Amino acid sequence: MHFKIKAYFNFFCSSTNQHGVHSPFVYNLVSKCFYNKKQTPAYATIKSILKKSKTPTTITYKVAKLLNRTLSYFESKRVLVLANSADSISQILSTNNEILIDTTLSPNSNEYDMIYLDIDYFESLSDLTSLHSKTHNDSIVIINSIHNSRTSSIIWEKIKKDPYITVTIDTFFLGFVFIRKEQAKEDFIIRT
């Protein structure tokens, strides 16, 4: 718990909002998706899913709403969910979104528009390499619990250094990873 408090303090001191972002891609994402306060009918369903979940989820209601908005913002159609609470996450993502969801990574699967996974999925950086072939230029990878422990933070730092990845956004609870080849390599720390 002490580590998480210190990590949040460091995050808060180094984070910014959309006005500190000079990338048009990230600025639009932050201002139109992250900070979108418009209520949607999906939010009541999401709250119900979190309450009824049989397995404990590692996400809050606020994070669940952000996940659902992100999927809509990018108009993702094919999603891979690798998480301990894959059923709940899949339900949250599919609320008011027409998508195909896989919960296992198979060698025969196609590319995904979005991949959501728990940070503890990574035992080594080579696990990230196995995801490269499952993404395309406009794919988004969302990683949960990036600051839950010292190990999680170390893994997040390794992910950010991967040469295949061009843009990362740290929102403390979630890490957003992009492979956009047309963009310069940048790391952002954004308050949501």
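^ that was protein a. below is b, sequence first then the tokens
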Amino acid sequence: MTTTARPRMRLLLPAAVAALAVSATTAAASTSSSAPAAHSVTSPGHRAAAKNPKAMLDAWLRLWNGDYTQASGIISPDFTVHAALLGGGDGSSIRGAGGLVAWIAQTRAAFPDLRFSLQIDPLVAGHRASVRWTATGTYAGGFPGAKAQPGTVVTFTGTDTLRIQNGKFVEYWLNSDTLQLLTLLRAL
């Protein structure tokens, strides 16, 4: 029996949303996302989080929920991203806390109220940690090819896998359901 496989697009949410900016998770935490900080701040609380993987993951989700002050306390200067970007890149150009904050800010530009929440408890094994999340936000408009109206609420899921070294995240692998997001944005 022969079957014909249909080509499938493999896209990742932040990469898809980052293309918008380039070309045009305590999840459920009650962190408000006011204007992004121009620079990161390290406090004693951030240093304590860097010694506890679960606290680091808590700070990681708060970071994605718009609290950019978390970045310097949990992100290594050598931090790298592994993600398939829409423009064909692999994410390796996103480096350190500053690069990550800029990428998150690009993502949040299209969905200013974007909120990440955990689907299940984080997994921590040795120097690796993983979180499964759901993100919900309101589309603000401007995504290339999207036919959805601004104000459209989108919900999509993903998994972040992170490697920890010397009390900070040094590598990040992203897998998100961008197909679901692009379908909701009517961009397919």
